[in-house]
Design brief:
about 150 residues, alpha+beta, 5 strands, binds nicotinamide-adenine-dinucleotide
């Protein structure tokens, strides 16, 4: 099955909210935003609101030492991924899935020129594909049974 659709279509469906923290935040501040908003990652922005990196649950797990650092005393900039993989609104969903697989990331900031316009996650893309499959199956059922959508 071909995967059709663009990042812009996903953002229209899921919304363009962007959850972020400042580069001065601690890991604790970032974890609090993630818990409040029920998301697995936050973007870290500099004073000019430019994207510095992404901090996710995975960064916290992978980059923590044993025993873990005190999150209240650890700057988020010490734990973030600064090799950020971004996409544009016009990029297609199959391309985003490939990027996530190749770079082993679950969140892609969406940029339009210098402007941040949203975030898409692996869950958003999987949901998109499942919905597209459901709709293709429904159309095939209608085709087989001779019932066409009004
Ligand atoms: N029911 C839904 O519509 C829906 C949508 C996405 C994910 N999920 C489920 O949630 C679970 C985890 O999802 P996930 O791995 O995709 O990651 P996640 O928990 O980080 O993402 C959940 C939602 O929050 C959004 N989000 C995450 N970080 C954001 C940020 N910093 N700024 C703005 N939006 C942000 C994502 O785009 C996604 O829509 C999975 O079980 C997935 O199936 C459900």
């Amino acid at each position: 099955m071909d995967i059709t659709g663009t990042v812009e279509m996903v953002l229209r469906h899921k919304g363009d909210a962007i959850y972020s923290v400042s580069h001065r935040a601690t890991v604790w501040d970032a974890l609090k935003v993630m818990a409040e908003k029920n998301v697995g990652a936050v973007l870290v922005l500099d004073e000019d609101q430019r994207l510095l990196g992404v901090f996710s649950e995975r960064e916290w797990v992978r980059r923590s030492s044993v025993p873990p650092e005190d999150p209240r005393a650890t700057p988020v900039t010490q734990m973030l991924t600064d090799e950020v993989v971004c996409v544009c609104p016009g990029d297609d969903i199959a391309q985003c899935m490939r990027l996530m697989t190749d770079h082993r990331v679950r969140h892609l900031p969406v940029v339009e020129g210098d402007l941040l316009v949203g975030v898409v996650s692996i869950g958003d893309l999987v949901n998109w594909v499942i919905s597209a499959q459901d709709s293709a199956i429904e159309q095939l059922e209608h085709y087989i049974t001779g019932v066409y959508p009004a």
